[in-house]
Amino acid sequence: GESVGLHLPTLSVQEGDNSIINCAYSNSASDYFIWYKQESGKGPQFIIDIRSNMDKRQGQRVTVLLNKTVKHLSLQIAATQPGDSAVYFCAENTLGTGRRALTFGSGTRLQVQP
Amino acid sequence: KAGVTQTPRYLIKTRGQQVTLSCSPISGHRSVSWYQQTPGQGLQFLFEYFSETQRNKGNFPGRFSGRQFSNSRSEMNVSTLELGDSALYLCASSLQTPGVTGELFFGEGSRLTVL
Prior knowledge:
By secondary structure, chain A is an all-beta fold. Chain A has strands spanning 10-14, 19-24, 32-38, 45-51, 56-58, 62-67, 72-77, 86-93, 103-104, 108-113.
């Protein structure tokens, strides 16, 4: 498969455990945030999004938490499975500008040990 | 329904050449965005097209250009290739109109290697 990043921070967890992936953003004007999953050889896949008027949003096995005070975003994956192994990116945008361009974080590699 | 299709998947060029990459969005999607992905710089926004018009542009030199056709298919072109242009080029399509970010659906990318 294609290497997404050679020196990504790596989170290694045991199958069945919960995973928490963190992301810090710098633009205080950002008001829309997305988490993407990228498997080797594939394009990023949408996981979950959240707007700045919320601090928590839940999906299937995933929860995103947003702390605007410290500009921090986290993705929690419950009961992590081997199929969750991938690189995870957070992305941000500012809806009010009309500029439709996501700014991506550098990514975190999640390795799930069976 | 079919996803975002990018062609070619892999290509090798030499410095100074030019390259054209193609993207077919999901049927019904009118917004197409392009991103460059490298190990060093990560994912960076190149440009976005909607209704055949470039709506937004990232911080890339003029060697990088694109266009969108009436059927929403898009192409991007890189002229006078440099070694640093080696990257995975990703296309993403969306139903949303410009200024309203919605879910982006990415293709699998075109892997460009410049020798």
